[in-house]
Design a protein that fits this description.
This protein is globular. It has one domain (about 30-285). By secondary structure, it is mainly α. It has ten helices and no strands. Keywords: Membrane, Transmembrane, Transmembrane helix.
Amino acid sequence: EILTSSHICCTSSSASFSSPKFTMGDHSIPRMTLIVVSTVAFIVCVAFNALAGPGSGPFKNTTSAISNDYNTEITPSGWTFSIWGVIYTWLSLMIIYILTTTCRRVMIAAVIFLALIAFTNYLTIFLSCHGLKEYGAWLNKYHKVDLWCIRILVQNGIATYATWTTIATLLNFTIVLSYNAGMSKSDAATVSLSILLGEVIAWFIVENFVFEKHLRYILTVYPVVIVALSGNMTKNFNAANPSRNAVLLGLACALFAIRLMLVIWRHIKRPLYRGINAEEVMSPMEIAKQQMKIFS
């Protein structure tokens, strides 16, 4: 897992907004430390994954050899794993964005989100969404670019990583059931796909009807599932006997289409932060002071 923290800062000229400026003094040492540790940990993680692929360095086997030795009915085609390139590119952009916030002349004194991916990617997404709940209206008014950077680079980047690692975990679980627990490959694959089905349906309900306002712009979950299942189909599909994989792939595509339509409709008809009086939008510093009073 990669430890990451973002110290979200804002930059703007005096003409861009009328709220009071928060001049950056000394950097917060704990937050700067987390950012540095995050960057170093990410670089180390990428380096180890680069060595693991061809079986170099401390790794005695290639990842493809391990995959072939422990083949299952839900193991996708080799091309599917190229999604790691997308994941690491996305996370790299996220790290770069976080690093740029330390070089700005004007800053938000309160943290937009502070997350440890080591505490699981899901917790990271939760903390990020909570941060936007607290400061989203202020960002939307004064720093809309930062708001969209957090949504696209941070939240969707972590969601991509979280989804793929979830699928990878289920793949490893299938291997354990098949090779260690003595379960047939078909039954082991069915168990893992059933879990994935439950997770996809649960996520669809949560993101659209439970925490819709918090999760509205996280859209990368379904594409990752579709890529994984497509890779599985190209490797294991039997036209004479369409498998449960095909059914799940069709469901994922349908849910993704519905999700896109709902997001577009809500973005147009029910935009976030509508009706909020500009004069009542609290700055991060004011919110932080209010929170300190609550716990003091």
